[in-house]
Description:
By secondary structure, the chain is of the alpha/beta class. It folds into two domains: about 1-220, no CATH class; about 220-285, no CATH class. It contains nine helices and six strands; from the N terminus they run E-H-E-H-E-E-E-E-H-H-H-H-H-H-H. Helix 3 (about 90-105) packs across helix 4 and helix 5 (about 145-170) packs antiparallel against helix 7.
Amino acid sequence: MQLVESPATLGAVGDVPACALASGLSDPLVDAVVEDWGIPRPRTDELARRPSAHIVEERLELVLLIPDHSPHHLSVRIHVSGDRMLVLAEPEALEILRDAAEEADGTREAVVGMLLAAARRGEEVLDELEDASERLEDGAGGYAASPQRRLLGRTRADLFRIQEAQAAMHRLCTPDEQLAQNLSKDLRRGLRRAATEFDANRSAATRLYAVLGDLLAEQGAVVNERLTLVATIFLPLTLATGFFGMNFGWMQERTGSLAAFVLLGIVLPALATLLTLALVRVLTRSS
């Protein structure tokens, strides 16, 4: 398939199938394609929220979502009319889909190839997220986990978005959907392969989401245990401070010596702290 990336090269397209790659509605190539190829002008350039496919006779409008390292997916809008195709996407997404479009023999083959490219990109992003999750798990310990927990939360949110998008992409490629019913038998095999990869990506995102959730729960338990330990240490000290801070007459008359201060102000609170920690240790082991 011949690729067109500027209005200057549009006139050189012959009778072979062609694909125009535009970075948005403001790209001058869009106006030239609409005028020369008869493709209806796209109605919006907003970020798509879910994948979709609409087919009317020879015209196909397809929305794809490709995972990326940014908080949002890369949105791709594909408009097909006969053997002409217009692809609207961010430059990063165009680079991902370029080879699939160039190697295809026709527009329908290019659509299936782009779906496979999107599935492979999702697999790559999930592999990188899995490596990052393992590093977070190795480095998340104790109170140092506070910034790690925020990073884990953001990663889980990204995984949830990927999980939902990959599930929607899988549904888009199922045999019951309109897209599969408008493809040849050979192309339906490629579409089933894409559906399998999207489903595998969804399963991987779900697994990572659960693993990070368990890690967050574990870190929360560690923080709670250590805060409980600190509170336990200060419990007898607070009790001793409150008692000896009452300043009633009997205490003022009998605790004026250095020995009384050492015994009642240092030795007794320290002993009470040690006894409290020993009791907590025994109760923890017994439970």
